[in-house]
Specification:
The complex is a heterotrimer of chains A (343), B (343) and C (344). With 343 residues, chain B is an all-alpha fold. In chain B, 77% of the residues lie in helices and 0% in strands. Classes of the chains: A mainly alpha (343), B mainly alpha (343), C alpha/beta (344).
Chain lengths: 343, 343, 344
């Protein structure tokens, strides 16, 4: 998607939300102020996003504690390799299986919960990788310009123009042949999609920051490029990252779901995946088994929706271009004699 | 007038010159990716089926025993002569896949684009004009839900509801068997073929098969359009020339339609162009969901049989399509917006 | 009423307040001003004092969240009581507006000819295409834009040309009153002189009244009949240009005149402090914290408008009639030190 491309000028002070540097309390409060002062619908949506994301983080971290069964468990107990109390196949949602069971007699609820774990692992890795690659490249390219910049821009533009899913598919396909299908394979495949986005956003803000008066002043005073990049440019540019990162995380969840739907990336035998479950459920739909596909699908929507609300909420709050600066209704007070300019 | 057509021509020449490195870069990229794969493609695809001697013959025929540079040269030469290789698993020329299955993909994507514009443009305009009203809130929610829902999950729900439960529409393939047999392939776009031969009786069946996939894929794009057009309309309504038009006593309906909507639509043309990547990615998933016999469906098939040549050929074609479309969009833009030619 | 002629437009006690999260901004707070037909009134003041808001308010063009009351009398009616549609019909043929920034005021996707056609069609339905083109071209020629450029796009013109097109676009409807909001600020000096010449001709030839909003006192001195000085949402002094400039009665006017640069300037003069916050304006006279001649009364009571002579109105306690203030109130005010840090 092209979210990154349309991201406007750097919002101020978003780094706190990423647990960024300089967390002294006064500063933190000042930077969080726009979030807390967001009002009405905007505030509500932002908090809904935060709540949804937290929910899935908790599910992912505590999956073994929360989930009633294992993600590939199809028996109540395994006694010396023998299956005891095999679950029914394609069982309707019931007391024992709240979300029903799949065609392989696995518990849908357990697969949804463990699916959150897979999704979180992949996305955290992918976002981490792409920021680690994209941000430095963007900084260097934007600050120094020249041939390096032109070459990098050309490469990134080419990558960016490429259909994002196909790019991920090809890389996942190739890596799967090499290192096998695992979380790392999927994360690297997805990373390749988002590096160009971080590169673009960072490079563009570097270019605009570079022309700012205070950076020019620092350069005139003889500050070295390293100092300027680190102290002035990076601090300003980094503020765009939380917004881009949460929007990209949403997108990455979708990309991962698509990869697993198509059967590339993480092997279905290695981890529970929502996309894979929906693909298996397609044939169930024909027979009217709605639960095998509905719950993993809803999980995707809720997590992606939550991340989107979070990202857009932050964007709205920090980005003054679209923000309505707290317009309040004015009621003109009745004129008093003091107030009135006498004729 | 003559000066502006001259500048348009100059713009086209520069723009065309930029395409060449882009195409080269993409081709190199695809080739490189497919060659970093460890092991060799023939082995991967046919490993279990052939004896070592047979494998060697096949490898020699495909040129995999030559140095990489030679292979690269051959690949480029082949692409420029319109030869994208032959699949390893079923010895089918990739160009044949493109002409046969590409037609189905074209049919699907064009129909989806139509749905997306029909839904997305008016909804986005209304939401931008009536900012913060219930129309805006519902349009934004629509945008978020449609964005957050993977196409294949929307497809799953559509199949479940409209096909299994309601029985209104078919849920897979491009036509029923009888209709398929009745049609003579001219363009491979079945609806067009039916029209060419005047087989109007076949049309309802074709349209019914097209409906669910086109709406599913169309909604995905519609979400992007709604978000984008809404923001554009809001920003355009703040433009100085809007206030100037009001100050001249231009009526509000005209200010909104002629000045705000029209100008807000200009960047949308670019975005439609950028969405080709999204459209193709979505098409791959939609085709897999509805068993639509397009290129995407073939790609999934060859991915699963680990056929490198087929995957490489199909990806190359996708890359070329994206570059071609973005070129066309830029040309259209320069034609519509007179400012672009001069910058 | 100070003018003998019936005013063309009369603003009475107009207030325009914006809502913000901090509270209402009193951008225009009880302004009264009259303009006679064919008269050119200069409205001067520092940036942010509400001059532009006043100009927009007369046309009923306010940003979302703004509220307005008082009276704008034009053609015997109060414009504030007009419906949106009635107001639209006044904009253009009744009252025109020329903007500060000409570069972005034309729709970049519309030819100049289309701008004219649209404007004329809105106000004179039934006019033929030929007639429209002819009338537009006549006005454009008057502004020095050759007919060959009629079908060009806005980006093909320079800033000065665009401003002349904007003026032509206002004039093609032959308005009786024109608000010009810093029409030359964005232009270079030569173009400025040209535009001012055009505006002066306008008044001479069509008897158009003009409200010239500017912060440039030299322009006012050169081309206006009367001047109104605005400070923090209020008009502090108004009168004939010659009188006000030669003998300013309000300390703010005096300070403003002292701050201008001329050939005889030897050192720069500036007014200490910054314009007040219009959310919480100072009590009493709004200028008192910066006023070199402030008295005790100034901090508590707002000065009434007085008319020391026929053409002049001043809102300052210094101009008060002799017995109006007692000894104590006349004592000089002990000023708090103006912290430069507060201005940042």
């Amino acid at each position: 998607m092209t979210i990154a491309g349309s991201l406007p000028s750097p919002p101020t002070g978003a780094e706190v939300l990423s647990g960024g540097p300089g967390g002294r309390r006064g500063r933190a409060r000042r930077m969080l102020a726009p979030v807390l002062s967001a009002h009405g619908l905007q505030r509500w949506l932002l908090w809904a996003g935060i709540a949804l994301v937290l929910l899935f983080v908790v599910l992912a971290i505590f999956a073994p504690l929360i989930s009633p069964y294992g993600w590939n468990q199809y028996c109540a107990h395994l006694v010396r390799g023998a299956c005891e109390g095999r679950f029914t196949r394609q069982g309707r949602p019931s007391g024992a299986h709240w979300f029903g069971t799949t065609v392989q007699a696995e518990d849908v609820l357990a697969r949804v919960i463990y699916g959150a774990r897979t999704a979180m692992e992949v996305v955290v890795l992918a976002v981490l990788f792409s920021t680690c690659v994209g941000i430095p490249l963007g900084l260097v390219s934007g600050y120094f310009g020249g041939t390096l910049d032109r070459v990098l821009v050309l490469i990134m533009d080419a990558l960016f123009a490429f259909p994002y899913l196909l790019l991920a598919i090809v890389i996942a396909f190739v890596l799967q042949g090499g290192i096998g299908g695992g979380v790392l394979t999927a994360a690297v495949a997805i990373m390749a999609v988002y590096v160009p986005q971080y590169f673009r956003v960072v490079r563009n803000s570097v270019i605009s920051v570079r022309e700012e008066n205070y950076v020019e002043a620092a350069r005139t005073l003889g500050a070295r490029p390293r100092t300027i990049l680190g102290r002035y440019v990076f601090v300003n540019v980094i503020q765009t990252v939380p917004v881009v990162a949460s929007l990209n995380a949403a997108d990455a969840i979708l990309t991962l779901a698509a990869l697993s739907f198509l059967g590339v990336g993480v092997d279905p035998t290695a981890a529970a995946q929502w996309g894979y479950d929906v693909s298996r459920a397609l044939s169930d739909a024909q027979a009217g088994y709605w639960w095998t596909g509905l719950y993993p699908g809803l999980a995707i929507i809720l997590l992606v929706g939550g991340l989107t609300l979070l990202g857009e909420g932050l964007n709205d709050v920090y980005n003054p271009v679209l923000r309505r600066r707290g317009i309040r209704r004015v009621v003109l007070p009745a004129r008093t004699w003091d107030d009135r300019a006498p004729q | 007038m003559s000066s502006s057509t001259g500048s348009l021509r100059r713009y086209l020449v520069t723009r065309l010159a930029l395409v060449i490195p882009m195409v080269l870069l993409l081709l190199t990229f695809v080739f490189g990716l497919m060659r970093v794969a460890p092991g060799n493609p023939i082995q991967a695809a046919l490993g279990g089926h052939l004896s070592p001697a047979q494998l060697h013959v096949r490898m020699h025929a495909a040129g995999y025993d030559k140095p990489v540079v030679v292979q690269y040269g051959e690949y480029l030469r082949q692409v420029f002569t319109g030869n994208f290789g032959t699949t390893i698993t079923d010895s089918r020329p990739v160009s044949q896949i493109i002409t046969q299955n590409g037609a189905a993909t074209l049919e699907l994507t064009v129909a989806a684009l139509f749905v997306a514009l029909l839904v997305g443009v008016p909804l986005g305009m209304l939401a931008g004009r009536m900012r913060d009203s219930w129309v805006d809130v519902s349009a934004r929610s629509f945008g978020i839900v449609v964005y957050a829902a993977p196409v294949f999950f929307l497809g799953f729900l559509a199949r479940l509801v409209f096909s299994t439960y309601l029985g209104w529409l078919p849920s897979s393939s491009q036509a029923s068997v009888l209709v398929q047999a009745d049609l003579i392939p001219h363009s491979n776009i079945l609806i067009l073929d039916a029209m060419i031969d005047g087989k109007w009786g076949d049309l309802p069946d074709l349209v019914r098969h097209l409906t669910l996939p086109a709406i599913t894929l169309g909604l995905l794009l519609a979400g992007v359009f709604v978000r984008l057009i809404r923001v554009n309309v809001i920003q355009t309504l703040r433009a100085d020339y809007i206030e100037a038009a009001r100050a001249r006593g231009v009526r509000e309906s005209r200010v909104v339609v002629r000045h705000a909507f029209r100008n807000a639509l200009v960047p949308v043309i670019t975005v439609v162009g950028l969405q080709v990547a999204l459209l193709l990615s979505g098409a791959v998933l939609t085709e897999a969901t509805f068993n639509w016999p397009g290129i995407g469906n073939e790609l999934v098939f060859y991915l699963n049989s680990r056929d490198y040549t087929a995957v490489q050929g199909i990806i190359t074609v996708f890359a070329l399509v994206v570059v071609a479309v973005s070129l066309l969009i830029d040309i259209a833009n320069a034609w519509i917006d007179p400012r672009i030619r001069y910058s | 009423m100070t003018t003998t002629v019936e005013p063309l437009l009369s603003v009475c006690d107009l207030r325009v307040w914006y809502g913000t999260s901090r509270g209402p901004v009193r951008a225009v707070d009880g302004v009264s001003v009259d303009i006679a037909p064919g008269e050119m009134l200069g409205l001067v003041g520092e940036s942010g004092c509400g001059k532009s808001t006043l100009g927009r308010g007369i046309l009923g063009l306010l940003p979302p969240g703004a509220v307005m009351d008082g009276e704008v009398r034009y053609g015997g009616n109060n414009l504030l009581a007009y419906t949106a549609e009635e107001m639209r019909q006044v904009r253009g043929p009744g009252i025109g507006l020329i903007f500060q920034e000409p570069m972005t005021r034309l729709n970049p996707l519309m030819r100049v000819s289309e701008h004219f056609a649209e404007t004329l069609r809105e106000h004179e339905p039934g006019m033929s295409r030929g007639e429209m083109a002819e009338r537009s071209l006549r006005v454009l020629r008057g502004m020095g834009i050759p007919p060959t450029r009629f079908r060009s796009y806005p980006h093909e013109f320079s800033g000065g040309m665009r401003q002349r097109i904007m003026i032509a676009l206002a004039l093609v409807l032959q308005p009786r009153f024109l608000v010009a909001d810093e029409p030359t600020t964005a232009l270079d000096v030569l173009v400025e002189a040209q535009i001012l010449g055009i505006l002066a001709d306008l008044r001479r030839n069509f008897d158009t009244a003009l409200l010239l909003i500017t912060h440039n006192l030299a322009i006012v001195a050169e081309s206006c009949d009367r001047v109104a000085v605005m400070y923090a949402g209020k008009i502090v002094e108004q009168g004939a240009v010659r009188d006000v400039f030669t003998e300013p009665r309000h300390p703010y006017t005096r300070e403003l005149l002292a701050s201008t640069i001329s050939l005889s300037t030897t050192r720069l003069h500036y007014i200490p402090g910054a314009p007040p916050d219009l959310v919480e304006p100072p009590a009493g006279c709004r200028f008192h914290p910066r006023c070199p001649e402030a008295m005790r009364v100034c901090a508590h009571r707002e000065p009434a408008q007085t008319s020391p002579d026929l053409q002049r109105r001043v809102a300052c306690w210094l101009a008060a009639r002799p017995g109006e203030l007692d000894e104590d109130e006349r004592e000089p005010l002990v000023q708090e030190v103006i912290h430069t840090a507060d201005e940042a």
